[in-house]
Amino acid sequence: ELKVEQNPLFLSMQEGKNYTIYCNYSTTSDRLYWYRQDPGKSLESLFVLLSNGAVKQEGRLMASLDTKARLSTLHITAAVHDLSATYFCAVDEDSNYQLIWGAGTKLIIKP
Amino acid sequence: DAGVIQSPRHEVTEMGQEVTLRCKPISGHDYLFWYRQTMMRGLELLIYFNNNVPIDDSGMPEDRFSAKMPNASFSTLKIQPSEPRDSAVYFCASSRQGLSPLHFGNGTRLTVT
Predict the structure, then answer these.
(1) Cβ B98–A103 below 8 Å, yes or no?
(2) Which pLDDT value is given to residue B2?
(3) Which residues in B lie closer than 8 A to residue A42 (C-beta atoms)?
(4) N or C: lower Cβ tally within 10 Å for chain B?
(5) Tell me: the pLDDT tens digits for A5-60?
(6) Cis ω for the linkage preceding A39 (within 30 of 0)
(7) In the prediction, which pLDDT does A94 show?
(8) Cis omega before residue A111 (within 30°)?
(9) CB of B92 within 8 A of CB of B23?
(10) How far, in Å, CA of B79 to CA of B20, rounded?
(11) B47 pLDDT more than 70
């Protein structure tokens, strides 16, 4: 059974700092997704990582995928308050279009 | 594009009543997914459709839950009878193909008293 583990589950940080969220998964997959969810809102797609070594960047967020280590990271550079949200990673198991979701990392960025 | 449209946004009902949630996917998307989100269990896939055909409903918790997709632009999730433990936010999502990211609707917050 595919498991997806995120850590940390909760992160409080100061503006201007850098930090990384980790997403580990238990079986081979080369498709990983990152989503953002604001409180009481829907989920918004951030990144789609489709191969080993894939790296994508959008503003202060950068995501990478290492399929050999079964690890994806979401790096936040010089955090700003607007990035406060819950971040989910999800893995596509066996190409059957069923995403297995991590529990989410709740990120709070203090001014 | 209007995005995925769900209705109602909020639903409060009494235990035993029938609840119907509605979803209009993005035009041209072949896949439609129904998810449930709770604090305790996180995001759970209930069922998904491809070209209006249910592909996997193994996530549907009980026979009280049913879903239909009569055409490419409409899907329903029905709970009959509803129970307090069904209280959650129900999301509908669609995608163009399997590798594409999911586009989520705004969700329906269901409260069963």
Answers:
(1) no
(2) 81
(3) 91, 104-107
(4) N
(5) 999 999 999 999 999 999 999 987 778 999 999 999 999 999 999 888 889 999 99
(6) no
(7) 67
(8) no
(9) yes
(10) 7
(11) yes
The yes-or-no verdict on residue B62 having pLDDT over 90 is: no
CB A72 within 8 A of CB A52: no
Structure tokens at B98: 């399997």
Q: How many CA atoms lie within 13 A of A33 on its CB side?
A: 20
Cβ-based interface (< 8 Å): residues of B facing A: 31, 42-43, 45, 48, 50, 55-56, 91, 93, 95, 98-107
Evaluate the CA torsion angle B46, B104, A1, A107 in order and state its sign. Answer: negative
Pairing of strands B88-95, A61-66: unpaired
Sign (positive or negative) of CA dihedral B51, B56, B59, B63: positive
SS3 assignment, position B51: coil
The amino acid at B19:
V
